[in-house]
Amino acid sequence: MNNAPIGIFDSGVGGLTVARAIGDQLPNESLVYIADTAHSPYGSKSIADVRRFGLEVLDTLVDQGVKMLVIACNTASAALLRDARERYSVPVIQVIGPAVRTALHTTRNRRIGVIGTEGTIASRAYQDMLEVASDVSVFAQACPRFVDFVEAGVTGSAELLQVAEEYLAPLRHAGVDTLVLGCTHYPFLKGAISYVMGPDVSLVSSDSETANDVYRQLISRDLLTSATTPGGTSYEATGTSAREFTALANRLMGREVRNVQLVQTGTIDILRAP
């Protein structure tokens, strides 16, 4: 048993969907969520920058004594997962693998679409994992403006639908029957994406499957909390103000986020050992 919190991070609000799924499945676990709002969004940044910013946040969570790290960001998962697993002694969970497994079990015609940030699509993290199944055809599309809409609190508008039509047209033309939402921001746009893709296309996001991975790792490592009452979530943000993050998170999540603390991440030691 281990009553230390689980650390979760994203560049902004997207990872809140993963945090909520973990909290729903493991209500007695304590969670610490850090939004790296000082450097958000990650999607258009270089892999080197994402790696540096992400490791700074993970270092902060480890210094706070978390028992597990959850990288609730697809771009960061693609950029720094291997580094993180070598760097820290606590288990590190990412969001790409769970979504891939779900997509492979969901597809009927073996034609799978993937949408994500420019960084995630360019990394080929999803494509390479999906294409391990030799009978699967993968069609990938970067949708950089989707994050901008979510971070602006826009989840339904004529402009969003127009942009979605443009981004998703190649995937509709390819005849995919399963679409992976390869960014934790994108579940907030499920309504628009589903409308454009049509009722016959299944949307796959990583939140619930990532929560399942967290549960399995806690069980296998004997890390489940012994607490018998709800653990709750502590929220932190980088940068100079948490006001915008708090307002947007409450708008998107239904007033679940309160008392966000500012946290300063420092210059990382690249050679830091576990």
Level-2 CATH architecture of the largest domain: 3-Layer(aba) Sandwich
Q: Can you tell me the CATH topology of the largest domain?
A: Rossmann fold
CATH class of the largest domain: Alpha Beta
Give the termini separation: 21 Å
Low-confidence stretches: 267-274
Quaternary assembly: single chain
Q: Helix count?
A: 11
What is the CA-atom radius of gyration, in angstroms? 18 Å
Helicity range of the residues?
Answer: 40-55%
Largest sheet, strands/sense/barrel = 6 strands, parallel
Strand count: 10
**What is the helix/strand order?**
EHEHEHEHEHHEHHEHEHEHE
Strand order of the largest sheet: 4-3-1-2-9-10
Mean pLDDT: 92
Shape: globular
Question: Which structural class best describes the helix and strand composition?
Answer: alpha/beta
Number of domains in the coordinates?
2
Q: How much strand content do the residues show?
A: 15-25%
